[in-house]
Write a structure and sequence with these properties.
This protein is of the alpha+beta class. It is built from 4 helices and 5 strands, in the order βααααββββ. The strands form 2 sheets. The protein has a 3-stranded antiparallel β-sheet. Strands 2-3 form a two-stranded antiparallel ribbon.
């Protein structure tokens, strides 16, 4: 089996994100209803956005296709993603997502194992 490893990362300055998302219409373009309902704080939403950006980079998706990516919580609380209307999802063997918050920054990494033979 031929496997590719795809990794993306993103770092966000919290204040910059807050400036960009002053309007609720912007939030609705970036986040799914599930994500908005599950995030109890703006800091959590910033982490979700960082995961979406890291995933876009890892999977080489078009910039701004945030609606294709939904960040969900596993039973143990660890984040993972579901891809919506993305044909390449069948090639994804495994994924690992990590979010870190430190002071004014949020950092996320998305790693995917892809079956390159399909």
């Amino acid at each position: 089996m031929n496997i590719n490893i795809k990794i993306g990362c993103d770092i966000i300055l919290k204040n910059r994100f807050l400036e960009l998302t002053q309007k609720k219409t912007v939030l609705n373009k970036i986040f799914t209803n599930y994500e908005l309902a599950q995030s109890q704080s703006l800091e959590k939403l910033i982490g979700v956005f960082a995961v979406k950006e890291a995933t876009l980079k890892a999977l080489e998706l078009q910039p701004g296709c945030w609606g294709m990516i939904e960040v969900i919580k596993q039973e143990n609380g660890k984040p993972s993603i579901q891809l919506i209307n993305y044909n390449g999802y069948k090639n994804i063997i495994s994924q690992d997502i990590s979010i870190s918050h430190d002071g004014e920054y949020v950092f996320a990494v998305a790693c995917f194992l892809i079956n390159a033979e399909r």
